[in-house]
Write a structure and sequence with these properties.
The protein is an alpha+beta fold. The chain has a six-stranded mixed beta sheet with strand order 3-4-5-6-7-8. Strands 1-2 form a two-stranded antiparallel ribbon. Strands 9-10 form a two-stranded antiparallel sheet. The protein is about 20% helix and about 30% strand.
Length: about 200
């Protein structure tokens, strides 16, 4: 008897499907652990936070590092997520030769409203497994910034972060690797929330 099985894709297969035009521009697809995941549409609060970060992060970073917005990073185990932001080391070729890998990445940021549980569980574990040293979640539901660091292996198949720190919307936080750079959260979080858990 034939049992249906899940088709997993390698990063190379995923790139080939993209080149062949298999996905439409507004499909919002990410490759997570070899699976094609359709990402939820982004709401107003998400987009507002995104716009505010797009103003603040380049101003803070200047030319110290490269800022990516909703662009791919390459992780082990056939993962190529497109986090809301990634701060990566500068490279002479601007990553023309390949998307940033864990050793290039200084910070990954996700903005979360309806996707909060997914970002706190599936993506957190994937980033920890990929040895992403710093992972931030702008938790718009609870109006806090969740800052994770020090990835570790819990068991053969489970990964997490040793440290979790919470910052409130009226606080300032230092960017990892840049202790002189502080992000003022009061100008990043949207003023109001019009959504429910």
């Amino acid at each position: 008897m034939n049992v249906p099985t899940l088709k997993r894709f390698t990063i190379e297969e995923y790139h080939r499907l993209t080149e062949l035009g298999f996905f439409q521009e507004d499909d919002h697809i990410e490759l997570i652990r070899g699976q094609l995941i359709h990402m939820a549409a982004k709401g107003k609060a998400h987009e507002t936070c995104n716009r505010k970060l797009l103003r603040e992060l380049p101003r803070l970073l200047g030319d110290r590092a490269t800022l990516q917005n909703q662009s791919p990073i390459t992780l082990p185990n056939d993962g190529e997520p497109e986090p809301d932001f990634a701060i990566v080391q500068n490279r002479p070729d601007d990553y023309l030769s390949g998307h940033p890998r864990p050793e290039d990445i200084l910070l990954v940021i996700e903005i979360s409203d309806p996707s909060l549980t997914y970002d706190q569980e599936a993506k957190l574990e994937m980033y920890a497994e990929g040895k992403i040293q710093n992972y931030w979640i702008f938790n718009l539901l609870d109006r806090v910034l969740e800052m994770y660091s020090e990835p570790y292996r819990k068991s053969d198949s489970e990964f997490g972060y040793r440290l979790k720190r919470i910052a409130l919307p009226n606080e300032r936080v230092k960017l990892p690797q840049f202790s002189e750079l502080e992000l003022d959260l009061s100008i990043v979080f949207p003023l109001q929330q019009n959504f429910e858990r």
